[in-house]
Amino acid sequence: MPRPLRKPRSAPFAFVSLSLLAMLAGCALTSPTPSAPPAPLAADSELAPFSANPPGALPRGWRPQAITRAKKPTEYQLVDDGGVSVLHAHAAASASALMRDLDLDPAERPWLRWRWKAARPIHAADNRYRDSEDSPVRIVLAFDGDKGSLPFTEQILFETGRLVVGRELPYATLVYIWENRAPVGSVIAHTRTGQVKMVVAASGADGIGQWRSLSRNIVDDYRRAFGQAPGRLIGIGVMSDTDNTGETADAWYGDIELHRTPPD
After folding, report:
1. What's the fold here for domain 19-33+55-259?
2. pLDDT at 41 > cutoff 70
3. Domain locations along the chain
4. What DSSP letter does each residue of the chain carry, written as one string?
């Protein structure tokens, strides 16, 4: 429980349902129904793997985060894949996330490792443009920071969001995506705010239909994207979305891990 008089925690994915503050899939992420948030993980705790959960439900500690009520949510469920539980996402002209709160210093565990698989590309997707900003798979990281240092227009957006959502929004959001056209390593600025940046982790049709294991140094990527060191990592999520293109996508996520050292 938060201590009295403590500054409210940022809400990793509770983005505002306003056109000028629309984020990620072209609009805001808002909680579908009021509920008490789960207790955040301790700074030195491990991110619970999907494989530690039985198939047939959602992973413990993760919760759905809906897009505005006008948006159809993506379906998420743990399934068996060769004896291992993985998270299956089915997006049909839909968009929503599955997220979990965190609280840790990313410099202590800067290496993000994960597995994902996409059944097919989203042919019309191009994340450089607002009307085609879709991806079959996304890993979403939310960071805390000093909002008072941002340009006045960004501060107005955050304040508007706080009033609508009822709690603080993340200072910055870094998103790893599977992009159709931009090369791996590219940083794509969001079309509506400078506080959301997308890093292309996979591109084109290479590896479609196969499990792919990836790793990224989130501290280095954050510095490239935002020009400064990251604050505390306060949330992580996955998101498969096809709401802008209207296409259908199936994808799978394996365990997501944070490590001190790069992979061997």
Report:
1. Jelly Rolls (2.60.120)
2. no
3. 19-33+55-259
4. -PPTTPPPPP-TT---SSGGG-BBTTB-B--SS--PPPPPPPTT-----GGGS-TTSPPTT-EEEEB-TTSPPPEEEEEEETTEEEEEEEEES-EEEEEEEEEE-TTTS-EEEEEEEESS--TT--TTSGGG--BS-EEEEEE---GGGS-HHHHHHHHHHHHHHSSPPPSEEEEEEEESSSPTT-EEE-SS-TTEEEEEEEETTTTTTS-EEEEEEHHHHHHHHHSS----EEEEEEEEE-TTT--EEEEEEEEEEEESS---
